[in-house]
Amino acid sequence: MSVMSLRRQVTREESRHDAWLAAGMLVAGILSTALGSVSGIYGGDHPDLWWGFVYAAALTLPLAFRRRWPSIVLIAVATSYFVGVSLLIPEVYVGNVALFIAMYTVGAWVSDRRRAALVRILVIIAMLVWLLVSMFQSAASDSSLSQEGPFSPFAAFAMLQFLINIAFFGGAYLFGERAYASAVEHAALEERTAELERERELTAAQAVALDRVRIARELHDVVAHHVSAMGVQAGAARTVLDRDPDAAKTALAGVEGSARGALTELRHLLETLRTPDAEAPGGSTLRLSALPDLVAHANANGLPTTLSVVGEPASSSELVQVNLYRIAQEALTNARRHGGPGATADLRVRYDGDGIELEVSNTGRAPLTGRAGLGLVGMRERAAASGGTLEARARDRGGFLVRVRVPHAAGTQSRAATAGATA
Fold first, then answer.
1. Cβ neighbours for 244, distance < 8 A, ≥ 6 positions apart
2. Are 328 and 306 in contact (CB under 8 A)?
3. Diameter of the chain by CA atoms?
4. Ramachandran category for residue 43: left, alpha or beta (phi over 0 → left; psi -120 to 50 → alpha)
5. What string of H, E and C letters represents the secondary structure of 16-39?
6. How many whole angstroms separate alpha carbon 138 and alpha carbon 368?
7. Which pLDDT band, with edges at 50, 70 and 90, does 12 fall under?
8. pLDDT tens digits, residue range 308-359?
9. pTM for this one?
10. In what order do the strands lie in the sheet with 355-362?
11. How many CA atoms lie within 13 A of 412 on its CB side?
């Protein structure tokens, strides 16, 4: 935050404090004027006491508005001080304090720093010129101080007056500058705090959104895979129920197995969500080594599928293995759902020096809809989360092709980077 950007509004509490300050200064000014008149500071040569009370009011009451109009208040107080001292009003303490407070307020509250500096410098110059003129006038009319020599009593008195005024006005100037700098630092700190709070809320919202996407993807994979298999098995059981009860029992047993498998995976997913320190999907038991079971399940549910592995299997992270497994599972589920009667599938895994490539191709019909479903969206998200790329398209000779390639470097990615890729 720049210095020029600070804009502060005067609160009711601050206005109330200023009003109490002005009232207290007024009482002190009246008392100081009365005591000065009684003590005869200027002898008997001073205006009537009532003029002293008017001077005290003109000197202190503007302080009630010192934060709202700092520059005007400083000019008013300085003018009142100049007039009062010139008329020899017997008050020498409260006026100095009021002038100090007014000059300090300009430095602490005026946001236009050029105007704040100009007003204070002009007041200081006017006061010093007035002091110089007053001293020479006093020296011309008063012979009590010797004026001979550079170190005469008069020169020492003049030097003392200048030093006192320089310290007085310099202190008011510097204290005001320091108060404004502190206010700027405080405002910048509040702004950074608010920005950090907004970033924290945004990060929390993004984390919730990422978790929702991950949960939806996992639920879709589990439900789509097992429920589609249950639908195929239930349809087969209904077809052969009358003429081949044993085959119907076998199909119903498959439905039961698919249902148990779905419940097991759903239970595992729920346990992962309920455990604060669980890392999903790293905590999953699904690996590339489980692909033969996935192929056997597809064969058992009406989709003849072959598995081939090319190259020497290389180690990869749990995240990559789970994502590749789920992509293969979703691709086979789509092939069984959309391929139609007589469709077959081929699952290939290739290991080379650059990475791992998984390919699922099937014969039969391509998906009828032209819009990508949640399954394809989830596969693309999993490929991106693993640092890889995915190709999903209809084949020219019929059927569908899903090919994903993940580099070996993805095996060392952190979960934070994975979450960022998913987002």
1. none
2. no
3. 140
4. left
5. HHHHHHHHHHHHHHHHHHHHHHHH
6. 108
7. confident
8. 999 888 878 777 888 888 899 888 888 888 888 888 999 999 998 788 999 9
9. 0.46
10. 305-310, 345-351, 355-362, 400-407, 389-394
11. 3
